[in-house]
């Protein structure tokens, strides 16, 4: 730390991204990326003409992309904004809607970035414990005097909260925003977007990093009432008006328009998840009922760290979270069927157990 | 505004980017972009293989790009960080180094975003008036109890502050950071980077949007002591670890390595500036001594707004700033020689004056 930094910098606890070791080639099942490349249309739209146009700033309104998103999700363009990944959208949410008075609540086990943002922006964050089985007890969120952030499906558990439960939370907190982070919604849940006409305190965010295979392009979006989106835009235009680059604007539009490719990819990922879950269970693993593109698994005979280390030795990266309630588990991103076969071979998962 | 926004949102005054009207084709001389496309190497490195790899997150450390920047600028990689445009770097500067206690100062006429950030992050900002001729009076910056931000060359005046003056400011403010924003340094000034070994309170930021023709890719950088860079990184990893996308990481490296193309581009822009300045003067325009890729010009016979409107009618976009001290001026980005010829034709600049 330099002697020039502000006092609260010392207290910040930055997010730790999944590792990207360069020492050898790994099968990467640790950051919930898509195992398939982006839509072929993405490759088509990024041509030499567009690369030459990189000399020009992107459209700060992201008009064309927002229109494509609005059409896909059945809302108005004024209900959509886009960001440099959904992490930026989440940061803007904290900046626009949370402060000393407007506090926030989220589950104790969820996407690790929520508490990083709370710390960064000095917002009081109530971390509500999940039940023993990692499910959300909706009663804990009824009429609490705070904004609420819920990842649905949740990470790293993959558990999905039905819309009826989200409605109960929305109804009982009419004066606070409920942000539903739908990073993984395409792998098995119903989007809360359909609730928007009924609840003006609902805000949704999503990402192109998972089901749209564009983690490297950085694209997130938020969908809500025009008023809430206007607030987010005010932050965006006070922070970084050109926050989404030209090529990502193009890639995002191409990806959202190629519905067939998208449906094919997510169907494959879901099939891989169901197949992998079955195989892991037959090896004695216990799994949560994940509706995401990853599985959250533990084995009675070994800790999360042991499993992680042994798989890494075998050339496979998974993620484990060294926290009291999650350290028995590993989170395994769904790769291609070939990659999952590799995971299952004697030298990998099986060996993890046998050497105990 | 929604009823959920934080109180201080109402007081924020977002930055207004240069207009991008879609009603017809304009010659765009309003946002200081480069008139030439990025290096051909940028087009080469963004190939189908890299587009397929968009499914993977970018390197949050931006290691390869930071190494290329470090080599180019003769510093260590630990002295370099990169952002989603230099706007994001500037935002991180305010977040890491400015708060209620650590205030900031900058000229009254400069890049309009500094005061937007001060408002956004609730930082007391002293706007120090430039002299009548828009030059900085260094005496105003001696031993002031604040961080200091100076765009060098300044915008929209293009005036360059010699390094001796920057040294005086650095020496007299040893306990505060002096951020030199070098967005336009490649068009005629000496970079303050050479002062880094002598002053640990110096921080520099720069952009690929101007001299590197990558405004659409969004890439900025900061260079300073390893300690200050570590502070900026702490903010980055608390805000958006994957802040620079994969293709921009590649494009940036290719652009910084193609020194020949870079030298050629900037020489052409400088030649165009000198030529255009001469022509404008012969038409009665008064100009500041711009060392940037734009000219700041006024004509005794017409206001900035009139000049802007008449040029827009003629299909040419320039920018004017409707503030007390600058509203007589227009800021004209240097285009290609052909575009500047268009600007000079009877239907454009000449006509602006004649119809008065």
Could you explain how this protein is built, in words?
Two copies of one chain form a homodimer. The first copy, chain A, has 356 residues and is of the alpha/beta class. Chain A folds into two domains: 18-37 and 260-354, Aspartate Aminotransferase, domain 1 (Alpha-Beta Complex), CATH 3.90.1150; 40-257, Aspartate Aminotransferase, domain 2. The first copy, chain A, is 36% helix and 13% strand. Chain A has helices at residues 40-45, 48-52, 63-73, 86-97, 113-120, 163-172, 226-239, 246-257, 259-282, 304-313, 337-344, 346-354, and strands at residues 27-28, 80-83, 104-107, 125-128, 147-151, 178-181, 202-207, 220-223, 286-287, 294-298, 316-317, 329-333. A seven-stranded mixed β-sheet of chain A has the order 2-8-7-6-5-3-4, with helices on both faces. In chain A, β9 and β10 (294-298) form a beta hairpin. The longest helix of chain A has 24 residues, at 259-282. Chain A is globular and about 55 Å long. The N and C termini of chain A lie far apart (43 Å). At the A-B interface, α2, α4, α5, α7 and α8 of A face α2, α4, α5, α7 and α8 of B.
Which descriptors apply to this entry?
homodimer; globular; Aspartate Aminotransferase, domain 2; Aspartate Aminotransferase, domain 1; 356 residues; 3-stranded antiparallel sheet; alpha/beta; 7-stranded mixed sheet; 2 domains
């Amino acid at each position: 730390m330099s002697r020039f930094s502000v006092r609260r910098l010392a207290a910040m606890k930055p997010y730790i991204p999944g590792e990207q070791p360069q020492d050898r080639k790994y099968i990467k099942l640790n950051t919930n990326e898509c195992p398939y490349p982006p839509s072929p249309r993405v490759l088509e739209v990024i041509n030499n003409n567009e690369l030459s146009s990189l000399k020009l700033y992107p459209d700060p309104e992201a008009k064309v992309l927002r229109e494509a998103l609005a059409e896909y999700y059945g809302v108005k363009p004024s209900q959509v904004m886009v960001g440099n990944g959904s992490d930026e959208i989440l940061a803007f949410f904290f900046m626009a809607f949370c402060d000393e008075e407007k506090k926030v609540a989220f589950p104790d086990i969820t996407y690790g970035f929520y508490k990083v943002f709370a710390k960064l922006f000095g917002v009081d964050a109530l971390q509500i414990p999940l039940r023993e089985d990692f499910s959300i007890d909706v009663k804990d969120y009824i009429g609490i005097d705070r904004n609420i952030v819920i990842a649905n499906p949740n990470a790293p558990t993959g558990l999905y909260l039905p819309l009826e439960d989200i409605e109960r939370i929305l109804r009982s907190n009419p004066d606070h925003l409920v942000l539903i982070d739908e990073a993984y919604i395409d792998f098995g849940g119903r989007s809360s977007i359909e609730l928007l006409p009924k609840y003006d305190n609902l805000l949704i965010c999503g990402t192109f990093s998972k089901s749209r295979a564009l983690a490297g392009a950085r694209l997130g979006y938020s969908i809500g009432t025009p008023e809430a989106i206007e607030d987010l835009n005010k932050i965006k235009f006070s922070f970084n008006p050109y926050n989404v680059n030209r090529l990502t604007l193009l890639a995002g539009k191409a990806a959202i328009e190629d519905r067939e490719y998208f449906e094919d990819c997510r169907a494959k990922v879901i099939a891989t998840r169901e197949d992998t879950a079955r195989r892991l269970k037959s090896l004695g693993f216990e799994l949560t009922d994940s509706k995401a593109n990853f599985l959250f698994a533990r084995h009675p005979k070994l800790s999360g760290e042991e499993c992680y280390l042994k798989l890494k030795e075998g050339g496979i990266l998974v993620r484990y979270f060294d926290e009291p309630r999650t350290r028995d588990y590993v989170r395994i991103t769904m790769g291609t069927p070939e990659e999952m076969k590799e995971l299952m071979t004697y030298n990998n998962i099986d060996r993890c157990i046998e050497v105990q």
